[in-house]
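User: Can you help me understand a structure? I only have the sequence.
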Amino acid sequence: MKKLRIIEILIMIITIRLTPVAIKYADSVRGYKAYGSEYLLPLFGLLIVFLVETAIDVYKSFK
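Assistant: Let's start by predicting it. Here is the structure, written out as tokens:
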């Protein structure tokens, strides 16, 4: 379970670190400053963590 927590923390760190890169890339492609879905990357990482935890809980309940 400790290994899973480390993976979850890494997922959150990666998505948080990728957000500024995605914002710069989107701004360069658009050619102007706008607010799009690239600001939702940390929430996407959180959603992945919750889905993994839920899947593991469901798997354990069927065991």
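Now, to help you interpret it: The chain has a mean pLDDT of 91. Helices lie at 2-30, 41-62. Let me know which part you'd like to focus on.
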